[in-house]
Design goal:
Length: 405
């Protein structure tokens, strides 16, 4: 956007200079009518879009302000005949522009927001900041106990959809690494999905206690209205309030599935079909994991096979380090198991077990996994999108798509 605005600003200044020197340009009838028609169509399209998303009032005001300013400017520039009148008209135009910038804090609803919208980023006391501090402190306590919860924010705008990346809050609907095509299809997220009317709930994600929601680790819900006042399309959830206020309502859900766990049995599934149909096999997250049909299991039991001898637990998995491009886990397995990490499966991720590269599995439809044997292990997931192997894999995918067209 800035690349387009900079030359537009320079062009506007050049046209104003040309006007002061030579007067208004000679306008031809048909080109002028064509431009007026295009502007009118633009207003109709924008108005329809405003009605569709329920923000007609804001969109209309934001469109009328520049339209009135443009009309007044056209009248002033047209009636100014001699050079002195043109100077007066240009001065009035600059004064009106400066006044509009100051009055709307150099922004409008069509291009940006006033600074008050971003109170969540301001360390000074406010409702936004108080809510943020309470949420961050709760998540810090969870992480200290070995949990890595995610948050779903619906309703709050005011900078909140960007706050996750700044303050380390993994917002399932915000602008973060969770957002890619398969995830959006499975979870129902998409553009403007922080608005209640735009939030979809596909069969694969019917509510906040659904299997996929539990695998995602959603343990906090943040709304700009109390749960009992949510629209009918919103699923209700049993939760207790963490923060209640005039603008924000934060709820805490019961503990979800752990971010990392061990499973001694793998249940094969066609991930794409399960997501498309919303038919997710019911598994016990204490010892089972869904594994995509394309990934072979070498030593872990599959289907309905049972262990020869009963065990209380397949083992433990502890996240030692969790960073954007690397996750390190220590695992102690009693039998051959699948280590499941509920972070999203994505090309470019690799996995090492005790320093040795291993095939990465697509586990539980959207996430990452790897087979490990009995004993203690250090497992390292690392993101290497530009390694020679991953670049070759990306090229093969492009070639395959071209070949199927």
């Amino acid at each position: 956007l800035m690349i387009a605005l900079v030359p537009l600003a320079l062009l506007s200044a050049a046209l104003l200079d040309r006007y002061l020197r030579d007067g208004r340009p000679m306008l031809r009838l048909w080109p002028t009518l064509a431009v007026a028609l295009l502007i009118g169509l633009g207003f109709l399209v924008a108005t329809r879009a405003g009605l569709k998303i329920g923000r007609f009032d804001k969109s209309l005001v934001a469109m009328l302000q520049p339209a009135l300013l443009l009309s007044l400017t056209a009248v002033l520039l047209h009636v100014a005949a001699d050079r002195r009148a043109r100077v007066v008209a240009a001065t009035v135009l600059l004064a009106l522009t400066a006044t509009e910038l100051v009055a709307t804090n150099a922004t409008s609803n069509m291009n940006a927001e006033p600074t008050s919208v971003y109170a969540v980023f301001d360390p000074r006391p406010s409702v936004d900041r108080g809510t943020l501090d309470a949420l961050v402190e709760a998540i810090k306590a969870d992480r200290a106990s070995g949990r890595f919860p995610r948050v779903e924010m619906l309703g709050p705008e005011r900078g909140w959809q960007n706050a996750g990346m700044v303050f380390g809050i993994v917002n399932t609907l915000g602008y973060n690494p969770l957002r890619f095509a398969v995830y959006e299809k499975a979870v129902g997220s998409g553009q403007n999905n922080h608005e209640f009317r735009a939030r979809l709930f596909p069969r694969s994600f019917r509510g906040y206690r659904s299997p996929l929601a539990r695998m995602l680790g959603i343990e906090y819900l943040m709304f700009d209205a109390p749960m009992e006042a949510l629209p009918p399309n919103m699923p209700r959830a049993r939760a207790f309030p963490l923060v209640s206020g005039p603008s924000f309502y934060v709820y805490r859900l019961p503990p979800a599935a752990p971010r990392a766990y061990l499973a001694w049995r793998g249940v094969k599934v066609d991930s794409q079909t399960a997501i498309a149909k919303g038919d997710i096999p019911d598994i016990d997250l204490d010892f089972e994991a869904l594994i995509d049909n394309a990934d072979p299991l070498l030593s872990v039991r599959q289907g309905t096979e049972t262990l020869d001898e009963a065990i209380e637990s397949p083992g433990t998995a502890t996240i030692v380090s969790h960073r954007a491009n690397e996750v390190v886990i220590t695992a102690e397995a009693a039998v051959p198991t699948i280590l499941v990490l509920h972070d999203l499966y994505y090309p470019g991720w690799e996995v090492e077990v005790d320093g040795e590269r291993r095939p990465m599995l697509k586990a539980n439809l959207l996430f990452r996994g790897v087979e490990i044997g009995p004993g203690k292990h250090t497992v390292r997931f690392v993101f290497r999108p530009f390694s020679a192997e991953n670049l070759k894999a990306a090229l093969d995918i492009v070639r395959h798509r071209k070949g199927t067209r």
